[in-house]
Amino acid sequence: MNLSPQIIGELADRVLHAQDHAHTITKLTDEHPSMTIEDSYAVQDELRRRWIARGDRVIGMKAGLTSKAKMQQMGVHVPSFGILTNAMARPENGAIQIRELVHPRVEAEIAFVLKKPLSGPGCSIEQVLDATDFVIPAVEVIDSRYEKFKFDLISVIADNGSSSRYVTGGRPRDPRELDLRTIGVVIEKNGEIQAVGASAAVLNHPANAILMLLEHLHARGESLPAGSFVMTGGITEAIPVAAGDSIVARFQDMGSVSFRFA
Ligand code: OOG
Ligand code: MG
């Protein structure tokens, strides 16, 4: 860690204000070039403290930048992890308010809900599947608080991996009944196909994103409790959206997730 607790707290306040009021900020590393990845996860810890203090509930975690398409789109080649709260969840078939966001994009992801706790390192895909209650289709709405959606790994982690909203839908499935490497995904905007992919794009198997997340958590003395909701990262590049757009993400054998932007 290179930054003092006081500066970490100030950065968390700045990021939280930008998230809550949908405005951009300059990359944190522009002002603090010595900032480390540890510092940026410390900013996340402070965000979490602030969310809990105002009554939000942590419901799980997300892995991001876990597919080549996403890494290439963002120019960042290392996965990032972030915190998900109930305040970010939105219902299927509803409208997401664009005025609450800066420059949102949508991503199709496979989400896991755990029935048993998981801790790393050294966990296997088999253990992840054993601990999984069900997998469910999800669309994440990411919204970087950095100008022009441009950032580096350290800055995006401090912005909680651009998390802003997420919607689940379709059919919850037993992961044992699917081949989680070959789930085809189609993202449509206003009835037109924007991206297609298969779930192996996420680290060969989306459960690998959970294994990486467990290693990350272990290094910080944390783990995933039973009941955790975990998003494993966009399978294709993220699609920009505007007011009036309707989104449908179709997942092979898992149903679809639909909603619109107002
Ligand atoms: C970082 C978050 C990436 C994913 O699924 O890859 C992410 C970003 O691209 O803004 O959520
Ligand atoms: Mg994502």
Automatic annotation (TrEMBL):
Gene3D superfamilies reported for this sequence: Fumarylacetoacetase-like, C-terminal domain (3.90.850.10)
Q: Does the keyword Lyase apply?
A: yes
SUPFAM superfamilies noted in UniProt: FAH
* Gene Ontology molecular function terms on file: 2-oxopent-4-enoate hydratase activity
| Keywords assigned by UniProt, alphabetized | Lyase
Q: Name one Pfam family in it.
A: FAA_hydrolase
Q: Which PANTHER family match?
A: 2-KETO-4-PENTENOATE HYDRATASE, ACID HYDRATASE
Q: Which named protein is this?
A: 4-oxalocrotonate decarboxylase
Instruction: Give the originating organism.
Output: uncultured bacterium UPO41
